[in-house]
Design brief:
Elements (H helix, E strand, L loop, with lengths): L4 E7 L2 H10 L3 E3 L7 E7 L2 E7 H5 L19 E4 L3 H13 L3 E10 L2 E7 L5 E7 L1 H7 L5
Parallel strand pairs: 1-4, 5-8
Antiparallel strand pairs: 2-3, 3-4, 6-7, 7-8
Protein name: Lactoylglutathione lyase
Keywords: Lyase
GO molecular function, one term: lyase activity
Length: 143
C-alpha cells in the first residue's frame, strides 16, 4: 500500500461541513465517521477529516488552538482536475454546498486554469487544470 494523506480540518458545525464535502462529490467513509468527525474520500489515498472543533483541539499540544475563521492561512489545500470544465464544476458544487469563491477562476500561466473556494469554516481548496502541453513543458529533462 502506498502512502496516504489525511487532511484534518476543524469545523464549527459538522453537519454544515458534511453538506459542503458531499456537494463536492467526495464519498463519505462511515467506518471513520461519528458525532466527532466525518471522513471523506477524495481519491484512493487522499482523505479529508472534518473534525468538531473540540475534538480537533484534543490532538493539539503546547497550547495550540484551532484557528477557524481567523483570517490567517497556514495551508491551501490543492487538488487537480482532469479538465478545465472540472474546475468550474468544482466551484459550482462548492457554492451549492455552502462554500464561497475565494479566488475566481483565471489562467495565470498559459495552459493552467485554476480557482479556489472556501468551505463554511474558511478552509481554502484550490482546484487547477493544466493542459497536456503545459505539463509536458514542466517535465524535468532526463539525465
Amino acid at each position: 500500500m502506498g502512502q496516504m494523506i489525511f487532511v484534518n480540518l476543524p469545523t464549527a458545525d459538522l453537519a454544515t461541513a458534511d453538506k459542503f464535502y458531499e456537494a463536492l462529490g467526495f464519498a463519505k467513509n462511515p467506518a471513520f465517521s461519528d458525532e466527532n468527525a466525518t471522513s471523506w474520500i477524495i481519491d484512493e489515498n487522499i482523505f479529508v477529516m472534518s473534525l468538531q472543533q473540540e475534538f480537533f483541539a484534543s490532538f493539539l499540544v503546547n497550547g495550540d488552538k484551532p484557528a477557524i475563521g481567523s483570517g490567517h492561512r497556514e495551508a491551501l489545500n490543492a487538488l487537480s482536475s482532469d479538465t478545465r470544465e472540472g474546475v468550474d464544476d468544482f466551484v459550482t458544487r462548492a457554492q451549492a454546498g455552502g462554500g464561497s469563491v475565494y479566488r475566481p477562476a483565471d489562467e495565470p500561466f498559459p495552459g493552467m486554469y485554476q480557482a479556489a473556494v472556501q468551505d463554511p469554516d474558511g478552509h481554502v481548496w484550490e482546484i487547477s487544470w493544466m493542459s497536456p502541453e503545459a505539463l509536458q513543458s514542466m517535465e524535468a529533462p532526463s539525465n
